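The records we work with from here on pair a chain with its fold. These numbers are not coordinates but entries in a learned vocabulary of local backbone shapes. To see the layout at work, look at the sequence and tokens printed below:
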Amino acid sequence: MAIIEGPSELFDGRDASVNIDGDITARRVFYVRTDDKGFDHQSPMVAVGIDLGDFYPDYSWPCWCTSIRAQHPQNDGTVWQIQYDYDNKRELLPNPLFDPVVIRWSSENFTRTTMVDASGDIMLNTADLPYPPLEIDDDRSIVNVERNLPFVPTWILQYRNAVNLDQFVVGGFIVQIGQAKIEKINIGERQVRNDVAYYPVSIDVHFRDEGWQVDRPSEGLMQKTDLGVYTECEDEDFNAVREPAMLDTQGKQTFDHTLQAVKAFDVYPQRFYSALGFF
């Protein structure tokens, strides 16, 4: 079964309520059309990308998905409506390993250095020379995902500072390859519920739209000639430079900052997030 239209949210299916006791409920409905009339209700659900335990997108309305229903709204087996019901009640299940995944969103402000403006152009002074790197704010979205595990897998620690090597969906958001990095892994103490032992494990994932590669302007004391021979970089008076000079994409010295090459490096380990079982 293939998805040929959607998913798209039906806004007249949205519903939310709160009562005097603080009970919160909400509902979202999505439309999906497939290419056949089979009984595969799983594919439309996966296409929408919302899972049990996912937080409601309006974070001022604290509730999470507690049930999912797929149905045909009309006598057409190719059209599906996927209904998601939310509430703020979390009942403990007999088996803690079946507890839904808990997803919490937040943001945190960091700083980073840049030499370009919002359009990606190098910032120049009135002499058309680049400014020194400027420190600016770098606000990041953060998701905390928590679930219960029967044991602590040793390989989970290999995901510290790891960047995602695969596309995944969290809370209905599609995360592209290279945009996520695990910043923190918390493993709680061993607990027992109804004679079932488990460990609460949570991870903090930080997101950057531009990815997590590190950009390094190409510079050095030596340059490479067309013959592949390395020679000293020189200043405008033909003296050997004492500080690294700008290099272009061929490794040759340049005095034009617009020709200076920038290389991107993968400095963090890369892992398949799907193997974690958290998404």
About this structure: The chain has a mean pLDDT of 86. The helical segments are 42-48. The CA atoms of residues 237 and 255 lie 13 Å apart.
